[in-house]
Design brief:
single chain, mainly alpha, two-stranded antiparallel ribbon, 2 strands, globular
């Protein structure tokens, strides 16, 4: 999105509406990114989320390990409550382990989180 790529612009239209990015677009986006990191090992978190995404990934890459952690809902809720994001940059803070210097304010710009 920051580079104004075709896929990024399309993804942003869904995100701005508060919608999930459709499978076909999410698959294109991720597979394009993975093409650029062939010399590295990588770990995906949150992808695939659907059978279609898993099948697309499996057609292109050999998957060595899949983990599906069972995290209690209350733990997830607490993590989300502690998370703060600077919208313009995407910087993420967490009140539990990586807090901003001033609660509710971005360390770099001083803008609201």
């Amino acid at each position: 999105m920051r580079r104004d790529t075709e896929i990024g612009v399309l993804a942003k239209t869904f995100m701005d509406q508060g919608k999930l990015i459709p499978d076909d677009l999410m698959i294109r986006l991720l597979l394009q990114v993975l093409k650029n990191v062939t010399q590295y090992n990588w770990l995906l978190c949150g992808f695939p989320r659907t059978l279609a995404q898993a099948e697309a990934l499996d057609r292109v890459h050999q998957v060595h390990l899949v983990m599906n952690p069972n995290v209690p809902f209350e733990v997830i809720r607490q993590r989300l409550k502690a998370r703060w994001v600077h919208p313009a940059s995407g910087r993420v803070y967490n009140l539990g382990f990586d807090p901003p210097k001033v609660v509710g304010v971005d360390d770099v710009t001083g803008e609201p989180l």
